[in-house]
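Q: Please design a sequence for this.
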């Protein structure tokens, strides 16, 4: 809440107090859940489940997965504010990403038969290569001039396909680390981790969009 709303409100005192209190509240929550689990209750987040081998690393990957969420806003600002594209034209630019984000999960079973658990790093590697390629393409284009339309479409297609491959395999990679009885709880933890990653990634760039002349 303070990360998302603090900047918009001008970083008032409550936002700093909330950030400072977060570690203390997290510790209180952890101890409460530990006592509840030992007493035979049903904790919201079972501490024993988080001790599963490899689960911490898997949740770290989930935390970083949606850190690129701000890309969609920044790229829209680039298209509309920098290249003066219409809102419709800018939205259609993202169409290859959306199409392949749908096709990626549908295609996951086929590569899993050949590479097994490496589907996730392959998908994330393809996504990373796509972002690097898009950054190079924009940097190489003359100022105020759009890149050739075919290459961005291909790159966005690759980014969408990589993310579409990576997300289902990430969920599976995390959930398979715990027993079936705990899978629902861990799925909820992954969902929350993805949202926190989006907030952390988005807050870093949101201030750049408040300068004079910025238009969506």
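A: Design:
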């Amino acid at each position: 809440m303070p990360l998302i709303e603090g900047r918009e409100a001008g970083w008032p005192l409550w936002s700093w107090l909330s950030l400072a209190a977060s570690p203390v509240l997290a510790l209180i929550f952890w101890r409460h859940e530990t006592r509840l689990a030992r007493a035979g209750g049903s904790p919201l987040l079972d501490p024993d489940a988080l001790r599963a081998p490899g689960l911490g690393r898997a949740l770290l990957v989930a935390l970083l997965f949606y850190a690129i969420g701000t890309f969609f806003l920044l790229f829209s600002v680039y298209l509309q504010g920098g290249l003066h594209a219409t809102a419709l034209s800018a939205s259609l630019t993202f169409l290859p990403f959306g199409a392949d984000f749908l096709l990626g999960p549908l295609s996951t079973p086929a590569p899993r038969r050949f590479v097994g658990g490496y589907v996730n790093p392959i998908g994330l590697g393809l996504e990373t290569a796509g972002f690097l390629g898009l950054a190079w393409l924009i940097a190489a284009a003359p100022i105020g001039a759009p890149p050739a339309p075919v290459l961005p479409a291909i790159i966005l297609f690759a980014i969408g396909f990589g993310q579409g491959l990576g997300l289902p395999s990430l969920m599976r990679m995390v959930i398979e680390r715990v027993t079936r009885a705990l899978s629902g709880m861990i799925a909820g933890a992954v969902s929350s981790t993805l949202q926190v990653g989006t907030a952390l990634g988005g807050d870093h760039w949101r201030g750049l969009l408040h300068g004079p002349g910025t238009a969506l």
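Q: Thanks. Anything notable?
A: The chain has ten helices and no strands. Residues 48-210 form a domain with the Growth Hormone; Chain: A; fold (CATH 1.20.1250.20).
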